Amino acid sequence: MSLRVEQRALAQSDQQEVVVLGPSPAEETRAPPTTEGAYKILGVRNGLTISVFDIVVGEDFVGRYQTEPCVAIDCLFHASGQGWILDAGGARAAAVPYRPGRVYVMSAPKGATGYYDVPLGTRFRGIDIRVGMDLWERLGAGDLLDALNGEHPLHSASSGETWVGVLPVPPELLGHIKALFDSAMSERGDLVLEARALDIISTAIAAMRKVQPAATPPRDRRQLRQVRELMVSDLARDWTIEALAREAGLSQKRLKTGFRGLYGVAVYAYLQEQRLLEARRLLGAGGMSVTQIALSVGYNSASHFSRLFARRFGLQPSRVPGFAGRPASFEADD
To answer: Is Zinc found in the keyword set (predicted)?
Structure first.
């Protein structure tokens, strides 16, 4: 079995050829020779592309991708690994975990570049819809992009003008997504494919409109940002809510409520995410053992760290590409 790639415009499209707004599986780094399955890129109209895919990665799926200016809506039925958004200097700036059952939205008004890293043997199955910026504006959703920042409740990762969030998944959205995937894979008709895609875009826009940035009292925002900076600057410290509240001059209740309102997650959830992201960076740099890295980001138990890391990124710490340290001798990382 090999990778079957189909790229075409829908029958009703006015495109002479498909303008790919996102990564293409035809690129060598996107589709290694040993990758198997099916990947279809369908041009709906100028500024609107559908991709559906069901592949099994045949070797470490690591490569650079580039996206044209667009808003992307993605749903993964099967997935593992992660991707990174690159900053203006080409450095990895923000990680996006690939998790099944999630619906991601990415705003990249000036385009974006990044890397993806998918473990060997991973099944990748899902859809990707890319909407050009002009079409997104004509759909009346341009105002939604103005509020997308690190404080937005849907925020997952961002760098520069590129923003990634995780959408709530109402039943109608999931139903449209599954119907689109099934229609594309079974080739039930091009009109159906376009209708499904428009349904998904419309439902996603409605879901985004229902979620407004939390109203955190202005007087608390400076202290809450200070709490975030304190944690990030000293990940190894055994932070407590009491200590953070005391450092910032807030009550514990205002700290917990305000932090969730401003950043969309609880204090400890944010701290754990930053610890694991830093650990991932250190593992990729090499030179330290798993145990040393666990300690450096605040975990006294290497086995506990390994379980959290595997749950978050879908692979054991010692399997991270670039890792050159000595794996810790405990069963969880064997």
So the answer is: no
